[in-house]
Amino acid sequence: MSEFKFPTEVIELPSKGFIYPKENPLSSGKVEIKYMTAREEDILTNQSYITKGTVLDKLLESVVISKVDIDDLIVGDKNALLIATRILGYGKDYEVEIKGEIENIDLSQLDNREFNTELITQGVNEFEFLLPHSKTPITFKILTAKDEKGVENEIKGLKRLNKDASPELSTRLKHMILSVNNDSTKKSVREFVDNYLLARDSKSLRDYVKEIQPDVDLNVTLESGSEVRVPIGLRFFWPDV
Question: What pairs with residue 34 in β-bridges?
Fold first, then answer.
């Protein structure tokens, strides 16, 4: 049987590759992916992957042709690849239920958000920010897929110790912040988040990160006038799963 060549598409990353070191293939700002097949549908229904929360990573590992590490992707670039995979697999139309009514979202109309490239030193995922209320200088990074896994694992561990704990926000900040007052030791960063980071400063930092980080603009206005943020999860690919 002759070898069958899968059709592929080259996807432009929202970050344009600026975030990644030059030696990382992601620095090209482009990733080649193939069209989904029945093999990828098997991945989407794999109960082991679903239970472990790894199903979307396994999906990307299967469709990405470029020699890149999925864990290196910042979240916004990962979103772009997942959206492109969904379009190539099942088309651009995505039906969602809003207030009991079925609405259709045209995924091909989702655009990459503009971001200020002057804020980025080529190949360096590190940013400066002055907390507006305490006037404390910090540096932070945009979380990668690997960082997100670290956050999730730490949260799971904390909840095993205390099932009533709700450490999501502070844990994510501990992984995001790189230094406080030029002190980059993990102990100092964690102590600052737990004991000295004002709620007002925390919100200001999170708002700033949302503003500057490369991503796909997932906010859409439907024909009914409703505004929604497109959720990207297993049902994004297969509503019946």
Answer: 8
Of the candidates 210, 149, 198, 202, the residue with the CA atom closest to the CA atom of residue 177: 202
Contact assessment for residue 107 and residue 93, using Cβ atoms and an 8 Å cutoff: yes
Task: Report the distance separating Cα 171 and Cα 166, nearest Å.
Answer: 10
DSSP for 19-78?
A: TS-TTSGGGGSEEEEEPP-HHHHHHHT-HHHHHHT-HHHHHHHHHB-SS--GGG-BHHHH
- Specify the length of the chain in residues: 241
- C-alpha to C-alpha distance for 212 and 113, rounded to whole angstroms: 9
Residue 123's region, left for phi above 0, alpha for psi from -120 to 50, else beta, is left
Looking at the chain, the whole-number percentage of residues with pLDDT higher than 90 is: 67
| pLDDT tens profile 158-172 | 878 777 767 889 999
Q: How many CB atoms within 10 Å of residue 61? A: 14
Instruction: Supply the pTM of this predicted model.
Output: 0.88
State the amino acid at position 75 in one-letter form: V
> Average per-residue pLDDT in the chain?
90
- 3-class SS at 153? helix
CA proximity to 65, closest of 52, 81, 41: 81
pLDDT digits (tens, 9 = 90+) for 8-37: 999 999 999 999 999 999 999 999 999 999
